[in-house]
Amino acid sequence: MQSEKKMIEKLFNNKILLGILLLALCGPYMLTRDMEETKHIYEFVTTIASWAVIFLYARYGKITIPAVWLFVFLGWSFVTRFFISGNTLSYYQVFLPVAAMALLIELAIIYKGYALLDAVAVFRIYLYINFLLIILFRQGVSGPERWLLGYRNMQSWTILPVVTLLVIRAFWKFGKLDIVTVLDLMISLITLIVIKSATSWVGAFVYLIFFCISLICYKKRKAIPGIINLFDGLAVSVLFFAGIVVFKLQAVFEPLIVSVFHRDISFTGRTRVWDMALQYIREHWLVGAGYLKRAEYIKLFPDEVFQYPHPHNYFLSLLMQGGIVLLGIVTIGFVISGIRLWKNRDCLAANLLLAFLLSMLVMGFTEALSIYMCPLMYPMLVISMHAEKLRNIFTISEGRRKR
Question: Looking at the 3D structure of the chain, how many domains does it have?
Answer without folding.
Answer: 1
